[in-house]
Structure formats: structure tokens, C-alpha cells
Hints:
Blueprint: E1 12-17, H1 20-33, E2 40-42, H2 52-61, E3 66-70, H3 78-81, E4 92-97, H4 106-115, H5 128-139, E5 145-150, H6 156-162, H7 186-191, E6 202-213, E7 221-223, H8 224-237, H9 239-257, E8 266-271, H10 274-291, E9 305-308, H11 332-335, H12 344-349, E10 355-358, E11 371-377, H13 382-389, H14 399-402, E12 405-408, H15 413-420, E13 427-429, H16 437-446, H17 453-463, H18 470-508, H19 511-548, H20 557-569, E14 588-601, E15 612-614, E16 630-632, H21 633-644, H22 654-665, H23 669-677, H24 680-684, H25 688-697, H26 704-712, H27 714-729
Parallel strand pairs: 1-3, 1-4, 2-3, 4-5, 6-12, 8-10, 8-11, 9-10, 11-12, 13-15
Antiparallel strand pairs: 6-14, 7-16
Amino acid sequence: MYDEQGEKQFHSVIIVTDRTVLDDQLQDTIYQFEHADGVVGRINNKEGDGSKSEKLAAALENAQPIIIVTIQTFPFVLRAIENSTCLKERNYAVIADEAHSSQSGSTARQLKEVLMTDEMDDDTVLSSEDILDASIAARKGSGNLNYYAFTATPKAKTLELFGRLPNPELPASKTNLPQAYHVYSMRQAIEEGFILDVLKNYTNYQVAYQLAQKIESADDEVDSKRAKVKLNQWVRLHEYNITQKVKVIIEHYKTHVMGLLGGQAKAMVVTSSRKEAVRYKLAFDKYIAESTAGAGKKNGSNIQAMVAFSGEVEFTEDDPDCGAWLDQKFTEKNMNPNLKKRDMRKAFDSDDYQVMLVANKFQTGFDQPKLCAMYVDKKLGGVECVQTLSRLNRTYPGKAETGTFVLDFFNEPDEILAAFQPYYQTAELADVSNPDLVFELFEKLKTGRIFQWREVEQFCEAFFVKNKSGAAISNICRPAVERWQSQYSSAVEEFLKAKDMFERTKKTGDAVLMANAESSLKECLKEKSRLEIFKKDLGSFTRFYEFMSQIVDYDDKELEKLSLYARFLRPLLREKVTEQDDVDLDNVVMSHYRLSKIRQQDIQLKEDAAEYQLEPSNDVGSATAKDKKEEYLSQILARLNELFITDELTDKDLINYAFTVRDKLTENDAVMTQIANNTSEQAMLGDFPQAIDDAVMDSNDAQQAMMMQYLSNPELAKGFARVVFDMLKG
């Protein structure tokens, strides 16, 4: 495009993405439109000589019309073109495909610093103050930069940063909310046939298991939260758990997916971790080998799975059933021997592979139109849920007629619906972020008694020195780190002493002593929480300032300095984990397990729902610290088993029955009022016990077995009542 004087509107169009996989796909797509040599520049390490930063510098200086690059490249650009003077009169269009937070933080600011008009001479010596001034100026935006952002799942930050104000003369406010320039909704795209509805043919499964201790006397006191996390991880990596899911996946693929699209249909398995992805690959290969031994390809021996994950995976003694793999290192290369140096996307598109097992990598931003089925074994919520399941929505000849399949081992249908609904029609801002929160958090951090302002000044001076030493930078942060660690260690020690004293005074029954001990315990907890919150606030300040400073002209060097200092200090504040905090799982065994199909359904998105309101980030700096709750390992195991199973796994599942009873109790206004307005202990003393007994007694004929277990087993009844109560309270 040219202006009235015949000058180019934009000398270069820069397409920015935050994912390498998506970057490759964008390059391929744009090459389909433009084949002329020299028009499109790929900034990667795959073609020719030179680094990414050198290629980008050359592309900008030569005014290459289209430049495609990942946003991770831009922090390395400044040094390569810092002496260039040919960019100052040029204009640029920056297209952000998938407008995520990576385009609204420090990396985006560095991009602006590269492209903004530079009036300085080549020989100018920059002080730290000069660079801070340039950083602040870069945040204000530049007249030679125009941003165009695309996303199917806008966050509040995305709309605030890229949205257009109805009245550009006024600042953003609740009456002048930033809006998307154009909306092409999911609903419209589905109706017009550009994408498929991936929520049809959705089937959820439920895992039921029971854990036990080999030796009951080995009952150690552990941190409740850490124990539950480790126990859940232990179950998820358990060979039997993964083997049962792999069986369901392969048999479903063979029966419902394998023959679609003329035999070209693909499937994806989404796992929660790299270790799970490796275990899935091992179990997948083993099942295929065993089930098709001597049977020929007609029974599915031609089903081959590739596994995608980054880096290396090693197992430890804490991982279940991993003795044979303790000394092995698993990588994409040694787990996918048939790749033969091919790009994974291209290999998956061939007839060599039918199933891709993923751990984050390829879960989002991956374009494979032949994907017809997804098997989910990971907690999905919000934007991640939409982006993950939407891997299935690409059209392909014959795919609309057969549809897609989702088998979910982890999430509930209502959760999936809640994630998709906001983006089905139009998502709008409910309000804008409060810019004054930056100053409030700034003052809160300064008065936190961890760093001194002269240390912040010293840090910024050193940071902007050329060829700076990482060790020198860290040394400037050391006093603050030592203060925090010293204060935190003392706070934890005093807290444990106060807790022990409180437990001992409880046994005496002396009300005065108990009150004094409780007061001391609260004070110790307050100090411990203060230090934990300080650590959280460092990160909150950095993220919020980097976001808001692109919208609001703060023009404040002190904010800029603290943002820089806090970004480096935050990762250095680490708690010392003592050995007694660890959770020993050697004594745990899985005694029962069941994987049950709950329901196959079409999840219906609401067409008459009101436009979804996105809430801004106005709770920044409101972090709270929670005390570790200590429980006995056996109590934690019992709690998990109460939540997920019945005594006899062939009977109706306890959790489904709990929902039935819960629904009956929600109709009891007196009970619900008591739960809402009292502590748990008080509410349990009210009408709840009688109400749950009545609800159980009202069980229908199909639930008689569950009712008899409840009435004949006081311990089960007590645990069941607690589960239902927590469901109501939540």
C-alpha cells in the first residue's frame, strides 16, 4: 500500500509469533501466497549461514517486504543492529498471530526499542539513565509502528492492549472500553463451515482407585498439600493406570477413527507431563506388539505412535514401576527411531504415524487437518482448553460428515462447556485495569524490609554496562536474598515453636494459656506469610507494570528501575526444603482400580447466551499465603479413597451417588443457609446430619445398595457426609 505521495505505507510487514511450531506453519502458509524470491524472509537457523539476529538485521536494513520470526528472537536483535541508522525513517506493520501475553511484556518492549526512530549518533555513549529513558519512551509506542493482533481466545489483557477505544480522545475507562476492531466468532465460523464443532461426540471417563499402606505402623506426619500432589502424580504414572487408558484409546481408535478419511485419520493423546508422555509411548508400543502378535496388520499392528516432548526425561526411585528405566534417558530421538531426521509435523502427516502423544509441545498451535480424535488425560481449563481441543476443528474432505471425537479421562463436560462458551460469540471487557495499582504495589515492595533503594540503583547501573558479568549482577542482589532467607528461616522456626506450644497447651485445657499460645501462633504465621507474599508481589509488580506501561504513560524512572530489579530478584528467593518435608511413597500400593465410561454426548454451546464479560487484572498485589496443613499419610489416603471409590468397585461409583445426594440437599433452604453463614464446624452441628440421612433414605431402588452401605458402615457414612458437605460448601 502507498500513501498519497507515492511512498510505501509500510517498508516491512513483520509477522510475530510466540511458538516455533506456529512460526513454521505461518511461513508455509505465506509462501503459498507469495512465491517471488526475496519477498518473504524466514528468520530461523535452517537456511544459510548466520544467526537469527544477523538475518533479521539484514532483512530490516534491506527493507524485505515480509519478515516472519518468533518473538523469542527479538531480545537478541538489539546488539546486531544497534549502530544502524537506516531504520529511522521507515514504517512497520507488526502482525501478532495469537496475541498472547508474550506480546505485551518485556520482549515486546525490546521489539519497539529496535524499530523506533533513533536520533542518536553512532558514537554516542549511553549511560544507564539514557537506556532507561529509551525504555520508557519505547513503552509509549512509536509513530512508525502499527500493530495488528489476531486471536480466537482474547484475554482481558489482550483487549486492553490491542483494543480500539470508542473515543480515542479519552483514556480507557468503564465507559470507554477497548474493543476488538473486528470479530469473526466461533459460532459464525462453524455455521459457515470454516471450522468444525469439536464438542460433538464428547465422552468422559472416570478413574476410581484405592490406595493402601504396606505397613500400617509406618504412618508419618507429612505436609498435606505436598503429599496429595505426590500421591496423584504417583497414581498417574502407575503402569496399570496408563495401561488401562492405552487399551481404551487404541481400541477406540481402531473401531471409530482408523477408517475415516480414507484411512488417513490421525489422533492426538494429551498428557500432563513429559514423564507421562514417555510412559504412554512405552505402554502404547507394548500393547500394539502384544495385541497384534501373529495376527497381521488387520488387527491394528499398523498403528504407530510418535511422542513429542522437549529435552530429556529420566525416572527416579519415587516413580512407580520404573526400576527397569532408572538408568535411561528418554528423548524424542531415541523414542521415535522411525523419524529418520524428518520434521515431526511432516512425519506425522505421512502414513508412517497415526497417533501423536504430546506433553505441551504440539498441544496448541499445531495445524493438522487430518486430526479426527483427541484423547485427553490432563486438566484443561479456560483458554488452554479451547486452544487444545481446537486442534480438531480444521476441515478436511469428508471430515465434516464423520465428525470428530474427544475422549476425556480428566475433565467434566460442564468444565469444557464453561471454557468454550465465552469465545463462542463475543467476549468483551467488563472494566479496565486500574493503573494506580502499580504505585500501590511499588510502595508495598519498598516498605517490605528486604531491599534498599541504593541497591536497586546500583543494580541498574551495573545491568546496563556492556559485557556485564552475570555473577556481578547476582552479587548486587545477594544482600536482599540473604535478608529474605534469614527472615524466612527465623519466621518458620518461630512458627513451628509456636505451633508446638499451642498443641501442648490444648492438652492442658487451660483457656488462658491456650489464648496466649493461639495469639503467638497467629503472629508467627503473619510474619511467615508476609515474606511469602513479598515474593509473590515481586512477580506481580513486574508483570503488571510491563503490561500497564504500554497503555499508560507513567514516565517514571523509579518504576522502571524496580521492575528491572524485581525481575532478577524474584527467582533468587528460594525456600530451603528440609528432608522431613519430603513424602516417602515406598509404603504406598494401589489395591484397587477401575476406569469407567460415564457418558457420550454432544456438548451444546448456548446460542442465546449474553456476551461474555472479561474481568481485568485489578486483584494484583492481593496475594495471600496459606499455611501448610499437616495430616497423617493414612488420613490423606483415606480422603482420596473416599472421594473416588466405593468399598466394592463393582458397585455404583460413590462420587456419582454423592452428586445425587448433594442435589437433594441443595433443595433444603435451611441447610444451605446454615452452610453459607457459618463455619464448617458450626454448620455440621446444625440441620445437615439429619438432612443427609433423609436424603440417603430417599434413595431410589437402583441406589439401595449404596444406601445399605451408608447405613451399615458408620465410618463410610461419616466420610461420605464430609465429602457431600465439602461439595456443598465449595
